[in-house]
Amino acid sequence: MSVFSGMSRPMKAAGVALIGVAIIAAVIGGITALSGGNGANEAGPSGTTTQPGTSGGTSAPPSTSSSASASPSTSASGSPSSPVPPSPSSPGAGQPTSAGPGQPGQPGQPGQPGGDQQASNKWVTVRVFNNSTIKGLADRAAEDFRGAGWNVNEVSNYSQGVIPTTTAYYRPGTDEEAAAKQLAQEFGIKAEPRFEGIQSASPGVIVIVTKEYQGAHKGS
Fold first, then answer.
1. Whole-structure pTM over 0.85, yes or no?
2. To which H or E segment does residue 125 belong?
């Protein structure tokens, strides 16, 4: 006997439709059950649910943008950039420009040319000897020389011979030569190389004064 016996035609049509819907639902459910066996929603080895498009539940790290800026220590090409050395200070910047002691250009230094060459000669030692019978003549000459800025450090007598005229003696090729010639010019006396009798005497200009010496008192 059919399940539709005793039903009206409209009811039979509705029953057939319901049965069709049930069959379609069953088919869809079966397909869903079969597709669910691919492990897409199964738990992974660690017990976490895997997500579509991932492997083992671990998400892939985001890729670095190719337009990311280069690090400060690398150039645009990726190779380390060389540090730029600091520019050296300008030669002579902040440094004194005048010559130091004992260098050319400093007046008053031994044997060095300067703005006041005459003053630079007066450091040379001068020794004054009296070769006359006039008492105190060497002292007077030494006073004159010191008053003009000369470095007189000895006053005595010379009795080893007779000197014709007051003379400043020097050793050629030494600072004594320029000093002796300048001293002679200032006081109207002669300047000559040392003679045999005083060759081995102590360094310095040796001035032997005679009776005609007038020096600073000349013409008075």
1. no
2. strand 125-130
142, 153 in Cβ contact below 8 A? no
Task: Determine the Cα–Cα distance for residues 206 and 180; give it in Å rounded to an integer.
Answer: 8
Q: Which candidate, 157, 171, 147, 149, places its Cα nearest to that of 127? A: 157
Using 50, 70 and 90 to split pLDDT, how confident is the model at 214?
Answer: confident
Q: Where are the domains of the chain?
A: 9-34, 117-217
Name the 3-class secondary structure at 150.
coil
Confidence of residue 2 (pLDDT cuts 50, 70, 90): low
CA distance 104 to 98: 10
What pLDDT sits at residue 158?
A: 96
Region of poorest pLDDT, from 40-54, 136-150, 159-173: 40-54
Classified as helix, coil or strand, 57 is: coil
Among candidates 94, 117, 93, 95, which has minimal Cα distance to 105? 117
In the block, tokens 């337009």 appear at 67
Q: Which CATH number fits domain 117-217: 1.25.40.10, 3.40.30.10, 3.40.640.10, 3.30.70.2390?
A: 3.30.70.2390
Cα–Cα distance measured from residue 41 to residue 20, given in angstroms and rounded to the nearest whole number:
30
* pLDDT at residue 144, as a whole number: 97
Helix, strand, coil in percent for the chain, rounding step 5: 30, 15, 55
